[in-house]
Amino acid sequence: MFTTYLRNKFSISGRKGLILIFLLVSTAGYSQKNVETNLPHYDERWIHYGFLIAGHRSHYQLKYSDNFIRPQLDSIQSILTPSRLGFDLGFIVNLRLGEFFDFRVTPKVGFYEYKVEYNLTDGNQINQLVESTVVDIPLLFKYKSRRWTNTRIYMIAGVMPGIQASGNKKDENERKLLTADFNLSAEFGFGFDLYFPLFKFSPEIRFSRGLLNLLKEDRFGYSEGIESLQTNVFTFYLLFE
Questions:
Q1: Does residue 107 have a pLDDT over 80?
Q2: pTM (whole model) above 0.85
Q3: Residue 201: Cβ within 10 Å count
Q4: 179 pairs with which residues across the strands?
Q5: 137: helix, coil or strand?
Q6: Strand ranges in the chain using DSSP code E only, listed in sequence order
Q7: How do 226-240 and 125-136 pair as beta strands?
Q8: What pLDDT digit, counting tens, does each position of 4-22 carry?
Q9: Which long-range contacts (C-beta less than 8 Å, at least 24 apart) are formed by 64-72?
Q10: Is 17 helix (H, G, I), strand (E, B) or coil?
Q11: C-alpha–C-alpha distance, residues 102 and 155, integer Å
């Protein structure tokens, strides 16, 4: 599975490497005193398009219910939600609102995995893996700094509706954890616009927090002991415009 391959590659050291890249990019922008300006009138266009690829790490934010401490669940020691890796593909529609503000829509297809671990008091473990393909439609406002030669720093924030396209089929006779098909998340992040002679390239880090409880009751008790499940996603984007 492709996500398994990503899991082996996107380690903690990999995340440190991404942070290092951002620091190098930010300092490089201020050393371009005598460099020719690329695409000098690019940001004056009222609309432009592009595409994106991204890798993400996602997990559920879990809240225990009052049932967790009741006698019928005394065989469960803890319920954990470790993070999993996935990736996204999409495109960009950017509208210019002013010198420092843009509004952008970045529809994408995200391939997600969420894992829930039920650790039992006898030392055994029951795992539930929720795999799904989701159509996300981030609606974002972008605030950008003044351009320094071929570099610009920006912040971005907005909301992201998401509709599940496949996976997580709700068969009540199947022993699995059930979640909702629709999600709404708050998004915020930052990035760098790097101007090249023929295109603009933007590495970006974005954080996403689900606003809705995705948990659905099931007949086999996987939802027992859980009050809510909300998504948390950390994504590293590569945007080309």
A1: yes
A2: no
A3: 14
A4: 215
A5: coil
A6: 47-64, 76-80, 84-96, 101-105, 108-120, 125-136, 139-144, 151-166, 178-179, 182-195, 200-210, 215-216, 226-240
A7: unpaired
A8: 444 444 444 455 555 555 5
A9: 64/225, 64/226, 64/227, 65/224, 65/225, 65/226, 65/227, 66/227, 67/224, 67/225, 68/225, 68/226, 72/224
A10: helix
A11: 11
Q: In whole angstroms, what is the distance from residue 95 CA to residue 142 CA?
A: 10
In single-letter form, the type of residue at position 18 comes to L
Give the pair of three-digit tokens for residue 119.
């650790």
Q: With CA atoms as reference, report the closest residue to 80 among 51, 119, 53, 33.
A: 119
In this structure, the number of other CB atoms found within 10 A of the CB of residue 185 comes to: 21
Alpha carbons 77 and 64: distance in angstroms, whole number = 12
- What is residue 25's three-state secondary structure? helix
CA atoms of 77 and 67, how far apart (whole Å): 13
Distance CA 103, CA 173 (A): 45
What is the token pair recorded at 67?
């049932």
- Can you point out the beta strands (E) in 137-175? 139-144, 151-166
Q: Which domains does the chain have, with CATH numbers?
A: 2-240 (2.40.160.20)
Q: How many CB atoms lie within 10 A of CB 158?
A: 19
In the chain, the largest separation of any two C-alpha atoms, in whole Å, equals: 72
Q: What is the rounded end-to-end Cα distance, in angstroms, of the chain?
A: 30
